[in-house]
Amino acid sequence: MEVIILFGERLKQFYKIITASFIEKHFKRAVAPY
Predict the structure, then answer these.
(1) What is the 8-class DSSP label of residue 33?
(2) What is the distance between the alpha carbons of residues 31 and 10, in angstroms, rounded to a whole number?
(3) Rounded Cα gap, residues 24 and 3, in angstroms
(4) Quick one: which of 14, 34, 33 has its CA closest to 22?
């Protein structure tokens, strides 16, 4: 049971990092032309 919780936490962390980098990339791309 603890392993599942640990895995979930790691997955959340990973998802946050991916989302942040994705948003950053798109934001920069959107701002770049201006």
Answers:
(1) T
(2) 32
(3) 32
(4) 14
- Distance (Å, rounded) from C-alpha 21 to C-alpha 4? 26
CA angle 24, 26, 31 (to 5 degrees): 95
Q: Tokens for 1?
A: 């049971």
- Phi first, then psi, for residue 21 (nearest 5°) are -65, -35
Q: Convert the pLDDT of each residue in 1-34 to its tens digit.
A: 788 989 999 999 999 999 999 998 888 777 766 5
Residue 7, both tokens: 């895995």
Q: Does the global pTM surpass 0.85? A: no
